[in-house]
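TEACHING EXERCISE
Course module: macromolecular assemblies
Task: Read the component lines below, then compare them to the predicted structure of the full complex.
Student: A.B.
Group: 4
Components provided:
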Amino acid sequence: MSVTVRLADVVAALGGVLHGDAGLAINRLAPLESADAASLSFLANPRYAAKMATSAAACVVVAPDQQALAVARGAAIVTADPYLYFARLTQWWAARTRAAAVPGVHASAVVEPGALIHASASVGPFTCVGAGARIGAGVVIGSHGHIGAGAAVGEGTRLAPRVTLGDACVVGARGILHSGVVVGADGFGFAPSQGTWVKIEQLGAVRIGDDVEIGANTCIDRGALDDTVLDDGVKLYNLIQVGHNVHIGAHSAMAGCVGIAGSAKIGKHCTAGGGAIILGHLELVDHVHITAATVVTRSILKPGQYSGLFPFDDNASWEKNAATLRQLHTLRDRIRALEKSTK
Amino acid sequence: MSVTVRLADVVAALGGVLHGDAGLAINRLAPLESADAASLSFLANPRYAAKMATSAAACVVVAPDQQALAVARGAAIVTADPYLYFARLTQWWAARTRAAAVPGVHASAVVEPGALIHASASVGPFTCVGAGARIGAGVVIGSHGHIGAGAAVGEGTRLAPRVTLGDACVVGARGILHSGVVVGADGFGFAPSQGTWVKIEQLGAVRIGDDVEIGANTCIDRGALDDTVLDDGVKLYNLIQVGHNVHIGAHSAMAGCVGIAGSAKIGKHCTAGGGAIILGHLELVDHVHITAATVVTRSILKPGQYSGLFPFDDNASWEKNAATLRQLHTLRDRIRALEKSTK
Amino acid sequence: MSVTVRLADVVAALGGVLHGDAGLAINRLAPLESADAASLSFLANPRYAAKMATSAAACVVVAPDQQALAVARGAAIVTADPYLYFARLTQWWAARTRAAAVPGVHASAVVEPGALIHASASVGPFTCVGAGARIGAGVVIGSHGHIGAGAAVGEGTRLAPRVTLGDACVVGARGILHSGVVVGADGFGFAPSQGTWVKIEQLGAVRIGDDVEIGANTCIDRGALDDTVLDDGVKLYNLIQVGHNVHIGAHSAMAGCVGIAGSAKIGKHCTAGGGAIILGHLELVDHVHITAATVVTRSILKPGQYSGLFPFDDNASWEKNAATLRQLHTLRDRIRALEKSTK
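Instructor-supplied answer key:
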């Protein structure tokens, strides 16, 4: 759905101080590089000011300290935090350009007895809603969804096509679960017995707070006895693994391919870069930031940035250094010996 | 479904020696920390004995050497292996608290001609069963399943909603496949030709033994010519990648996010921690244990534990060490030079 | 579907010079080790010539320099590039042994108004095709597919069961998307605001070229403003994460579990081994090859092989070396001090 707005509409909806022609027509949001004369763009990082100077954008959202530069080249909207303004602008834009979900349950959906689906909710084709499940106001469930018995989806939450929410699992309000998400599969629990593994049935569930977004094909396992918990505002990206009884504190965010093993307890406002791994039964306090591909093998009790990835190099250099690394302990001993002999 | 049992019921079903009131009512299995006066708990590791002392649990399952301590605080069930006892208890509990699947094929399912579905099996909504597929006694296939032509699911195996079992692929008895599992996608095989990739059609299948559990969104590819094979008792967790023609020996277990490249041959009773990678065409003998995030780049012919992960540190320390690591080979040369000069 | 062909049929279809009985019956393609007297096999790597000598295969495809050895043991097809020949042979074989998809839309599928589905295309059970979507000639969409509004699938492309192609996303001709693929989920974009994350709606789409193969459960996110782009001939394996606005150049190939963060720009003819991670906003020029499990943290402007993985070892050795690694910078200082003192 294409749309044309005037700059006056934008500032009326989102605020900011407009410099330039309020009647300018905008039909696209675009980065500075690919913007054209009908594009609205933004400059969040002053480092890219040079890109703004050469951009064809009709108008650029900027911070006060970039106002002069922006106005010199065309229209500008000045606001304290251009990146935040831009985020809100994308939301406003999406609301105008995307087809709204039609309330109601698709004729092909299978709804078991005792499920409560709010009249304003939308349930897509080939979706199953289990006995006793509760679907809140304004919820959108895409095609091929599976909502287990006794599960609940809070007001305004959107499930993309093909999301599985297991029995008794709960998602709060205003969340977004992307395609392929599996909430409530079994945690990995076995008792060893004579060389075989005896399954520990996973009797807990998953409780997810409000304003949580979960990326495509990410898995959040149900707890063994108690529940796995994601607090309000948590953002998980794609292909993340969250083990049983993990607790992720409010507003923590994890990039793609992160793995969090069972019973890890992660604080509020933490972040983890792509591919990071957090081992089980650890605790990370609030405001801990893990660099991409880092493996956290013990608890972190002090806020800060933590890292542990092998620096990459051209293959020949890496080979030499990696080979030497396997003798590193010996090298230390040789240094010690030298120190003694030169004393 | 909530349930109340008496301690007498538990020991009647599962054995162990009960100390305390056999009539005590239990309505929940719980860890020591969150147990209440109607909870049955367990102590598997003597390290946590202090938690038992302060637990509100009605009864605790313990080993003989913890009997005195347990009985001092309340009822106890004494058994040689409390963790194993607890595993069986969760199974017994699940059987009593979870709704049993209703035998029969859901009206919405699509079953192609020649498929054989046992009368005691349950096939969920929107599931497809291909021509010539065989579904055994007591099998449960959740919603949105896809069972390919000529595939087979053994007696008592459970497929969660949304599992894909490709054409001609076979799963044994008593298995569990979680949501999002893909068995039988194509292995990654291409012949290079003038800068492009020519597809090698993957003509093998996947053969999975009995008592195998496969976690959510895990992928097991079909073989190129021969089959990919998982032997009895293998346990794979979520988001694992198993390439074509891999062979995983009986009772081996892999944690989440593990990747196993094509034609790797892994022995029996092996384990791999989360995020470990095993490169292709390697062999691991029985009883090899790979630490999380370790990359196995050559065959391992001796049982034992193998590791190779970068120790994490605060970011500043890591940066200094990582920078030095890129000169490690040079450092070794400098140590050699020093050794020569001080002789 | 089993099939029997004569060697004469093979060379008639695929070329090569046949040495031996053109009437020999073949009912299986097999590796040298498991081949039997009705198998056709191949020798791509002269290193395995000894396996050929002892193989029971009816016939082996070989390069001219292996002709003498091959003919000495039985029939042979001689061709310049046996591996490429074998790739084409698997395609020819698959076309003869796999049931062709039946054109037409399954009765259970949900097709929204304005979708254009070519008469020769096949749309499987429980598949949804959105408003305005275009499905080309000969396309096969398996069960449980979701084709978003305005999306397009090019001529001859095959979607396995359970593929999600988001709104406005486009896949070219002759592609293969495996089960669980999610094209067009939201990229991970948030503006921080007072300790919370404000969503940046992802307004771009995904554009995928011709002859692209995407493995099971791989995710390709839609762009934030502009599109995420995969050029012709790209091959991505299973469980790969491709962030928003990534650009992957023609004929680049990535092994399983690779993660590519947002806005990375990868050249043509690049490869990445399993579990490699490429951080965001980087550029890799053409012909860059990344070793498995390597984390690319800065742009690579020179073709070649790049590596950065921790060499694994037995656990005791690793522990000692890893502990020393955390003091590596200090060791360097100690070497410097020694050098000064011995001058």
